[in-house]
């Protein structure tokens, strides 16, 4: 740190950064535990899971998107915490919302689905993806401000 750099605890962004970090760590813990559950379903050869390829695919998508998006949120929080910019609150809110909604939509679509089609919750995935993209672009544009 340079002479003019403040620690995260002393910046104006501190409450936002702390909330983002908390969400990222708990999200990462949840989705990694969920992945362990999926491994257990395979390992113990649970028929309801193994005989339904639609469910398997959607639950894997929930696990993968949840884990990766938690890491994106973690990196964003660290970037905001150490940066000298104030990101737009709407961008942070969009990112935090999309990180929650997208994997949960895959999860719900996999748990309650039709014969060969995902459940109706799959319709939440595109808006959630737009939230994540809007949040990331908003944070990227916010880095230009001094």
Description:
By secondary structure, this protein is mainly alpha-helical. It has five helices and no strands. Helix 1 packs antiparallel against helix 3, helix 3 runs antiparallel to helix 4 (89-111) and helix 4 runs antiparallel to helix 5 (125-142). The relative contact order is 0.15.
Structure characteristics:
146 residues, mainly alpha, 5 helices, 72% helix, elongated
What's the helix-strand series?
HHHHH
The span between the termini is: 17 Å
Q: What is the averaged pLDDT score?
A: 90
Regions with pLDDT < 50 over 5+ consecutive residues? Answer: none
**How does the helix and strand content classify structurally?**
mainly alpha
Short description:
By secondary structure, this protein is mainly α. It is built from 5 helices and no strands.
């Amino acid at each position: 740190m340079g002479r003019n750099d403040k620690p995260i605890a002393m910046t104006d962004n501190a409450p936002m950064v702390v909330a983002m970090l908390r969400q990222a760590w708990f999200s990462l813990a949840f989705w990694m535990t969920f992945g362990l559950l999926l491994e257990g379903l395979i390992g113990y050869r649970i028929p309801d899971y193994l005989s339904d390829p639609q469910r398997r695919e959607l639950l894997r998508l929930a696990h993968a998107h949840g884990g990766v998006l938690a890491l994106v949120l973690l990196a964003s929080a660290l970037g905001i915490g150490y940066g000298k910019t104030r990101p737009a609150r709407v961008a942070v809110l969009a990112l935090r919302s999309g990180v929650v909604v997208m994997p949960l939509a895959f999860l719900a679509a996999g748990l309650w689905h039709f014969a060969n089609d995902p459940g109706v919750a799959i319709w939440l995935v595109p808006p959630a993806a737009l939230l994540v993209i809007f949040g990331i672009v908003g944070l990227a544009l916010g880095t230009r401000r001094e």
